[in-house]
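Researcher: Final request for today, and then I'll write up notes for the group meeting. The sequence and the SMILES for flavin-adenine dinucleotide follow.
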Amino acid sequence: MSINSIWVYAEGSDVPTALTLEMLTKARELSSDVCAIVGGDAAAMAGALGAHGVSKVYATGDLGGSLPGIPVASALAALIDGGTSPDAIFFGQTYEARDVASRLSVMLDQPLVTNNTDARVDGDTLVCDEPVFGGTKTLSTAFRNEGVKLALFRPKSFEPAETGGGAAEVVSIDVPESGEAKIVARHVEERSGPQLDVAPIVVAGGRGMGSVENFAMVEELSSLLNAAPGASRAIVDAGWVPYAYQVGQTGKVVKPDVYIACGISGATQHLVGMKGSKTIIAINKDEEAPIFGVADLGIVGDINKVMPALIEAIKSAS
Ligand SMILES: Cc1cc2nc3c(=O)[nH]c(=O)nc-3n(C[C@H](O)[C@H](O)[C@H](O)COP(=O)(O)OP(=O)(O)OC[C@H]3O[C@@H](n4cnc5c(N)ncnc54)[C@H](O)[C@@H]3O)c2cc1C
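Model: Predicted protein-flavin-adenine dinucleotide complex:
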């Protein structure tokens, strides 16, 4: 048992997602032989994947409108059972990749270790780290199985870096007859401004905003700063904003240059999703609020006074 080759399940349409590039960078650190898997046509992505150290892309080709879970897992299981197997496969913690990875785990009868934020090779096996208890403890899991090691990684766990390599070779793989799950409708979430998980500035609001009407101040400040608006779970659960806004353990993990927390207490489940931000600014009327424990700049005050003043100051400066 040793870790010589790692495949990464690549997501994206024309360009790989940030999470794909993050995992490729980690895979390269652990292994000199890094390949990618694409559920679909890989031609558009081969260049970017090669530039991130991928030598070969195993691609299923067009999936004919099926969700990737069943066909991609079946294609990979057939490939691996046929003797073409890496030592480990990395998947992102996304709906699509979880679907593929869990089905593959069952098909191959190999364990799947989920929710990881780091990995290393220890001796002859792979060890994955998962934050638990709201990120206060780290659980390390060493694979002891002989077969392929399947692991899921959370976004923003690694810094993506290019290698400058040329386009990866695309290898077509067969998709066995295995059934399909058809996509019957698509709902595109309405959004303006930058996307929460990649925005360089995030302005997030919590229960301390007081009301859904007051959340307009978070939206306004976001738009003035070209930032993405975010939220604590408390106000997502209250129905003020959609789940797509949620930052934290059960929401998105963000690492912007600047994170402005408005009326957010700083529960561990929230901190786990934003404490990696470069600069954290917190506005809270309670000087004992835990958010100040991670803040670089803290404003103790009422958001009803601080935020309008901040918005006015930015408007008059621009
Ligand atoms: C399994 C599990 C998963 C969870 N996942 C998440 C997650 O992903 N993300 C998440 O955010 N939470 C999550 N939570 C919930 C988390 O524990 C907290 O309940 C939540 O983060 C609190 O949200 P909040 O800070 O907005 O509200 P509160 O904790 O109620 O804090 C409101 C803050 O606003 C301040 N405030 C009040 N009025 C004003 C004012 N006028 N001006 C200035 N400040 C004011 C208060 O001093 C207080 O600090 C999870 C919980 C569990 C159990």
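Model: The chain has a mean pLDDT of 94. The chain is about 25% helix and 25% strand.
Researcher: Thanks, that's everything.
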